[in-house]
Amino acid sequence: MEDFGSIDEAPDDFCRRKVDECDLFVCIAGPLYGFRSPAGASFTEREFDAAILSKKPCLVIMTAEDYPLAANPIEADKDRECQHKFRKKISKDRIIDRFSTADEVSVKVVQAIGNWERRRGPTREVLQKTRVRSVSYRVAVMNKSTMVCHDEVTAAMAALQTQVRRDYAPVWGVGAELPLIGEHTEAPPGSWGW
Questions:
Q1: What is the DSSP letter of 16?
Q2: Cα–Cα dist 163/172, whole Å
Q3: Domain count, the chain
Q4: What are phi and psi of 80, to 5 degrees?
Q5: How far apart are CA 185 and CA 191, in angstroms?
Q6: Residue 135 binned pLDDT confidence (cut-offs 50, 70, 90)
Q7: At what angle do helices 11-21 and 43-53 cross, to 10 degrees?
Q8: What is d(CA 74, CA 71) in angstroms, rounded to the nearest whole number?
Q9: Residue 155 falls inside a structural domain
Q10: Range of the domain at 69
Q11: Residues 74 and 155 in one domain
Q12: Are 185 and 124 contacting, i.e. CB atoms less than 8 angstroms apart?
């Protein structure tokens, strides 16, 4: 919702209209029921119901049962019960996936959409319309070996980078840049060290 800006339309109507316009509905369900629409159900549940009513394909990805939750977001017992029922409803008659971290959910969504596209056998037009950009990471690599020289690591990293770009990322939707950095060089900002 934060990406849409100010719109002269009731949020419940707007959300359900956006569901009606989509080709595929991805439901990401967390541990909390969340804000309720004027109709009484959460906005997420209303969107899911709209997708089912309009016969949209639905992919469901939800938090694992042991998903870590901060201490401050406490919901009333009634809301917890509503979320429990909603999670059961969206799990019925479909295979769901679960995530345990925020980073993991993006990978799960990209994988699920990629699998849906492959099963569907989409046309080029549909692919262009629905393609999700892949998630990409930067993993800074440093040679700390006393037995492998810098040139050998450089050659291996070039081959690995080619394999990630050519073979792994297109299938899994998760890519990586693998810069080789010097021993006394700081890893680029946002990099994982390896």
A1: H
A2: 13
A3: 2
A4: -60, -40
A5: 13
A6: low
A7: 40
A8: 7
A9: yes
A10: 11-130
A11: no
A12: no
